[in-house]
Amino acid sequence: MNKPTGRQLAAARTLLGLTQAEVAARSNLSVPTLKRMEAREGPATGMQNNIDAVIRTLEAAGIDFIDDAAGGPGVRLKTQNL
Questions:
Q1: Least crowded by CB within 10 Å, which of 9, 19, 48, 58?
Q2: What is the number of other CB atoms lying within 10 angstroms of the CB of residue 20?
Q3: Cα–Cα distance between 20 and 54 in angstroms, integer?
């Protein structure tokens, strides 16, 4: 997938019911760093290792990122195989 947008990061966090402080802590980032990433309408900006950490955190919590090729960027909860 391409680099997610800031809005995708915020939407993913909200879909999971997590606060910025919770995602920042799980990603080993500061809250202001996460806030800057989420504030972007376009691709999330910041140090690539920080962006990767947030993506890993959100994916581990159950998020699938959807890119532009699927009709526009978005997020969804992963389906769970029971």
A1: 48
A2: 19
A3: 11
Do 5 and 38 meet the contact criterion of CB atoms below 8 Å apart?
Answer: no
The domain spans of the chain are: 6-77
Q: Note if the pTM is more than 0.85.
A: yes
Superfamily (CATH) of domain 6-77: lambda repressor-like DNA-binding domains (1.10.260.40)
pLDDT of 25-77, one tens digit each?
A: 999 999 999 999 999 989 999 999 999 999 999 999 999 999 876 678 899 99
